[in-house]
Amino acid sequence: MFSLVGVRGAFHPGDDREVFTKVLIANRGEIAVRVIRACREMGVATVAVYSDLDRDALHVRLADEAYALGGQTAAESYLDTEAILSTIDRSSADAVHPGYGFFSENADFVRAITDRGVTFIGPSPETIEVMGDKISARLAAEQVGVHSVPGTTDFITEPEQVRAFGAEHGYPIAIKAAYGGGGRGMKVVVDETAIEDAIESAQREAMAYFARDEIYMERYLTAPRHVEIQVLADAHGNAVYLGERDCSAQRRHQKLIEEAPAPDLPDEVRTAMGEAAVAVALGCGYTNAGTVEFLYEDGEFHYLEMNTRLQVEHPVTELVTGLDLVEQQLRIASGEPLDFTQDDVTISGHAIEVRINAEDPAGGAFLPSPGRIDSLRLPDGFGVRFDGGYEAGDEISQFYDNLIGKLVVWGRDRDTAIRRTLRALGEMDIRGVATTIPADVAILEHPDFQAATHSTKWVEETLDLSDVGSSIDPSDDGDDEEPTVRKDMSVEVDGKRFSVSIWVPEATPAAGRAPSRSKRSGARRGESGSGEVTVPMQGTIIKVLVAVGDTVEAGESVCVLEAMKMENTVAAGKSGTVTEVRVLPGDSVGSGDIVAVVD
Ligand code: MV4
Question: What are phi and psi of 363, to 5 degrees?
C-alpha cells in the first residue's frame, strides 16, 4: 500500500469544493486500479475489497486500505452484498464506485447503499431499471424523439405479426428477448418460411437465459457499425456528449479494439447522434457518466440501448477530450455541477484501445489462458498509456474476467494512432499466459481495418485468424529468473489487510519460486481423468450434449457453457458411460460444479 504524503481530504487547487473523503471501490482488476488512481489525484482516500484469490492483487496493493470479502468466485466475493455493506460500515467510506460489471447496473445494490447514507457513484436506481429492460429503454428514447431500428414494442405472440412486419419493412428481421440483452437469444429471420422456427427458438433461448420468454422484433441490419456516445449529466439538469467511440471490431459481443472518433462518420451524423444521446439522458433523468449505443449503417443511425455505467473503453474518450471521466463521476456524484458546456468540448486527434486478455487466439479460438504472469514488459513513449490490473508475478484467475489490461494510444490522426499502437504492441512482452495480442495485431494490420470498411460482422465473418499463432512460447518455462531476496507479504488482522516486507536468504526453500505455469497446468490436466465432469468457471449451461447411458470418449464435449460472453465446451475427462447428467440448459453453474458423471 502506498502512503500518501500530505493532507487527506479532497482538495482542488484554486477553489474549495469538497468531494468525498473515502471511496470504496467495489471491483477488482484494471478498473479498480483506474479508480484508485483518480481518487489519489483528487486527495480522496481509497478502500479496496478483495476475494481470497486477490489478497495480493494490484488494486489491493495500491489502495490506502483493503478488506477481505472472503470467497473465491465472484458470487462468493465481489457480488456478496452483505460483505460489501459491512465493509462500507467498517471503513466509514462515504461513497462507492462500482467500476463496470458486478454491481454497476444493479438497482437493488444502489438502494441498499443509499439507504445507509452512502453515495453511489453512478445514476439513480430508477434510471438503471428503465435502461435495463429493452422495451422500456426503447420507449424512453422514442418519447424524446430518438428512433430505434424500425420495429415493435409489442410482444410477438403469433407468426402472423412477423409476416405482416416483413411485408411492410422487408427481411431480414431480428427477433429479440424483451427482458434480455447482450445479443443473447437474438434470432435472425431471413424469409417468411423461417418465421415459426425463429419464434420458437428465440422463446426457448430467452427462457433459458432470462427466465422470461417474451420476444419482440426489429428490422435486422446486416452489416452495421457499432458507434456509441459518451455522455455526462449532472444533478442540475446539465448534460453534454463527449464524442463517440467505434467498437465494431468485436467477436461474439466481446469488444477487441475500440477507437475515438469513429472513422468516416459525417460531422452532421456525429452531431445528430450526440444530441440524440443527450436527449435520451435528459429524458430519463440520467446523472453521471453513461453511454448511448447506436447502430450506424448506410448513413443512418439507430438507437440500440443505454449503458448506465463507466465502460471498459472510456479511456479513448479521455485521450481525445482531455477529460478524466472518473474525476467527473466523483464530482457529479458529490453534487457539483459540470464546470464546462458543450461548446467547451473539443476532440483532438485519434485514440485506439486494444484490450489485452489472457486468452489464446491461436487459430481464432480465443481459449481462456489463466495462470501466473511470469514477466510483463510494458510499452512506453509518446502517446502511450497502459491501464493494467496486474504486474509480473500476479495470477490471472479463471474465476474472473481475464482482461490483463488495456493499451490506449493517442495519435494526431488515425493512421498515426494505428502505427503507434502497432509499435507499442511490438514492445510489449507478456510471458506465462497467452494473450490476445496476436489477434489485435492481425486486426490493426488488416487493410479493411485500416480503410475502416469493417462492420460488427467483420472479425467473425471476414478476418482470417487461422494463421494467428499463440503468444505463449512452449519452450519458456518461466524458470530462468533468479529468486528475489526481499519478500513482500500481506498479513490479515481481523479481516483487514496490511503489507509487510521480509528479507529471506536466497538459498532457503522458503524463497523458492512458485512452480511455473506449465507444470501446474500439467497437474490440472492430471486431475481431469476423473469421471466427474466439472465446469472450469461460473456461467450458464446453454446446451447439454449427452444423456444418461451414452458412451463418451475422453475429451468429448458433454455440454456447452456460456461464460465471459463466450461459449466453452466442457469435455469428459475419461472415456466411459454417462451415469448422471446434473444440469439442464439455462442452469447457472459455479466453478467446480459437477455437470455429469462418467463411469
Ligand atoms: C441488432 C443488430 C442488427 N439489427 N439489432 C447485439 C447486442 C445487442 N445489444 C444488440 N445487438 C445487435 N442488434 C438489429 N435490429 C446487430 C446486433 C449486433 C451487434 C451490435 C453491436 C455490437 C456488436 C454486434 C454484433 C453482432 C450483432
Answer: 65, 10
Strand-by-strand arrangement of the 566-571 sheet: 566-571, 557-563, 539-544, 588-589
Cβ–ligand 1 distance for 172 under 6 Å, the answer no
Cis peptide before 159 (omega within 30 of 0): no
* Cα 221 to averaged position of ligand 1 atoms, centre (Å): 8
Which of 435, 424, 442 has its CA nearest to residue 396?
435
Evaluate the omega torsion of the peptide bond into residue 261 and state whether it is cis, within 30 degrees of 0: yes
Residues above pLDDT 90, as percent of the chain: 75
Q: Which of 552, 501, 457, 585 is nearest to 56 (CA)?
A: 501
Q: Which residues contact 333 (CB under 8 A, 6 or more apart)?
A: 20, 95, 119, 120, 121, 122, 287, 288
**Of 152, 209, 146, 142, which is closest to residue 175 (Cα–Cα)?**
152
- Tell me the chain's radius of gyration from C-alpha atoms: 25
Residue 232 pLDDT greater than 50, yes or no: yes
- Residue range 33-52, pLDDT digits in tens: 999 999 999 999 999 999 99
What are residue 378's phi and psi, to 5 degrees?
Answer: -100, 150
22-25 and 95-97 beta bridge pairing: parallel
Q: Does the Cβ of 220 fall within 6 Å of ligand 1? A: yes
For ligand 1, atom 22: residue with the closest CA: 226
DSSP string, 404-430: EEEEEEEESSHHHHHHHHHHHHHH-EE
pLDDT digits (tens, 9 = 90+) for 140-171: 999 999 999 999 888 999 999 999 999 999 99
- Reported as a pLDDT band with limits 50, 70 and 90, residue 222 is very high
Which of 456, 459, 565 to mutate for ligand 1's pocket (most ligand atoms within 8 Å of CB)? 456
Distance of CA 104 to the CA centre of its chain: 11
**Section 400-418 average pLDDT:** 98
pLDDT band at 346 (very low <50, low <70, confident <90, very high): very high
**Is the shortest distance between the CB of 183 and ligand 1 below 6 Å?**
yes
CB proximity list for 61: less than 8 A, separation 6 or greater: 1, 499
Is residue 296 classed as helix, strand or coil in its secondary structure?
Answer: strand
User: Please, are residues 35 and 97 in contact by the beta-carbon 8 Å criterion?
Assistant: yes
pLDDT at 3: 41
Atom from ligand 1 closest to the CA of residue 219:
15
Provide the sign of the torsion angle of the four alpha carbons 93, 95, 100, 104, taken in this order: positive
Q: How far apart are CA 165 and CA 560, in angstroms?
A: 34
Res 525 pLDDT > 80: no
Q: Is a pLDDT exceeding 70 seen at residue 6?
A: no
Whether the Cβ atoms of residue 45 and residue 33 lie closer than 8 Å to each other: no
pLDDT at 14 over 70: no
**Span 176-188, mean pLDDT?**
81
